[in-house]
Alpha/beta hydrolase
Amino acid sequence: MPADPRAVLTRPAPAPDRTVAYGDHPDQVADLRLPAGSGSARPLVVVVHGGFWRAEYDRRHTGPLAAALAAAGYPVAQLEYRRTGQPGGGWPNTLTDVLTGVAELPRLVDEALPGRVSRDAPILVGHSAGGHLALYAAATAPATVGGVLALAPVADLGAAYRQDLDSGAVAALLGGGPEEVPDRYAAADPRSLVPIRTRTVVMHGSEDQQVPVAMSRDFVAAARTAGSHISLVELPGCEHFGLIDPESSAWPRVLGMLRSLHDDH
């Protein structure tokens, strides 16, 4: 494990093979990475990055993750979306960007790189706030999502608001607290959207200081009670960023869970 868990956020990664646009805004794009060789077309893996939905964190910090997934044989798209602190970011565009991107990417990738990626619904790998967005997409547009691997997701927006995660990040996303904009929480909070019918695996480190592991425990328990096809994998000793770091001790478990979801697709 690197001495600084955040080192992965600024670690250089190879340039993507292609970038495609799913809308007119500069942030309505996705970087594509393909595995070596010319094997049969496989379902796409869409990486939804975290950063508490804030503009200062973009898709580039998932470059090492995406490159490692491509090296392991997966076609990968790093999805970008409008974020809080920039024009057009926040409610509702951050959420609708992800819905649009997830729905359009299999077709866009097939057109850009014919025969390399199937048009089957993609597997979503979302980290932190990106985990929230992946769960949201699966709950609200299940036909567009083939499976979800949610890594330390912000799975309960009401609890995240009450706990003031990242100094008001949820209020910045939705424009207020649950008492001020209850309809937005009802529409956007995975905790309110169960059951999630798409097969979902939630992974969370026991030492996470950014998103408490208790949030995933409570969410998965509630989702299972509601009838969701969901499981929780807790990683003892793992913190928040090890889940997206191919150099961390957690990485083999993450890759193994993705392989299981992908093989069952």
Q: What stands out?
A: The first strand starts at residue 18 and ends at 21. The mean pLDDT is 95. Residues 139 and 264 are 19 Å apart (CA to CA).
